[in-house]
């Protein structure tokens, strides 16, 4: 049940339009940038480039106003026209997927790589010792064998949203299929058995490379992380392995957009030129562990200077999308999610209507084999309704979720912590799935258990259930500090629907389920 391009584009476009509306005042054009400013749509991991960009601003007067998102989501926004007039440049981890989308590719008029980072495997040293691996000789086949033997577990990002996850998926599929050139549908089909075994070892998923690293550091039971080399280098205690049978590399090109004028494109050229200066390349590699693209600059400390085998990217969109569909609906472990939904009296009216609309739209994104539980609450939990998207008849489960959503009513107080306790009790333990809890509330806790009681309850859970994160959504009059505490306690992440839309928040969380 992979999301459609239309839905992803609509959610991102809605957020962009909301932000634009909030900045309009005194008749000024809300889309017009300040002189010397470039509005850049960038991959989320590039937030670590802030110190470098501050130096660029000092040197050139060009200020980068970055909006961060997942690489594949950015491509969908570009293809759907959501960047026209709103952004001046694109700075993604890779333009490989973009080039498979003609409607997106024609909106880009130039691209220049700024740095690079291959996909790699970060493994705890004790696991390297246990497996007897020599890091410079490990192959993807050896990694698969270790997973199959139950000796290796790992985390990786969601390939449908994050380029690190997609690059990992392509790397593994290419290596395990024995493809001699760009992947084909036949290659993916031939390797499906081995790929399913490989992804059976995945224990963590994420919508972003940075959050994956944070979640991994909480999970001593997970042996390894598949991520960009640059991210892995920043995590203490990992041995970074670059599989000898090949990887896919991100080259972080800055791209001018066709919708901009010549003066803006000149600013983009000057920005790119500044970032490729030898002194800036040295600062980039030392700060971020990414590799320089200027030959005269040496890679930063700890980066292996040896050559790597570069695996080709799929040659057609049908192969790329087919690989994503196979991963989401068959290869990966299924998901179990409890949606803890505030339907207290304050949700009456437009807020409840918005919630129903967002959930109804979200059903088009649910994967086959996924288990979805709706747990609306007011002064207490009102009902617990669980549905499975059965591959034999997926529409039956989706229709049932929509029917339960339509029946939601608003009444009562707001029992956040009591409802979260019931969600953990419902999930239980012992299932081979990705489990998570999504909490949507428009207010503060006013009934039932208090924060301290929930903290004590959570501390008393067994280790397996404590690994289930809560992803709260900030909405309406909800208390940021209260929801941030829940996210931090459980290893989740807070999503802000006030700055975008409820649809967009639910959609973004999908990368973490």
In total, the number of domains comes to 3
Q: Quick one: overall form?
A: globular
CATH architecture label name of the largest domain: 3-Layer(aba) Sandwich
Alpha-carbon Rg, integer: 23 Å
Mean pLDDT: 91
- The H-level CATH homologous superfamily of the largest domain, spelled out, is von Willebrand factor, type A domain
Describe the model.
The protein is of the alpha/beta class and 513 residues long. The protein contains 22 helices and 18 strands. A hairpin with a 7-residue loop joins β14 and β15. α2 (50-60) packs across α13, α16 (350-362) runs parallel beside α22 (502-509) and α18 runs parallel beside α19 (451-459). It is globular and about 65 Å long. The model is unreliable at 1-7 and 9-26 (pLDDT under 50).
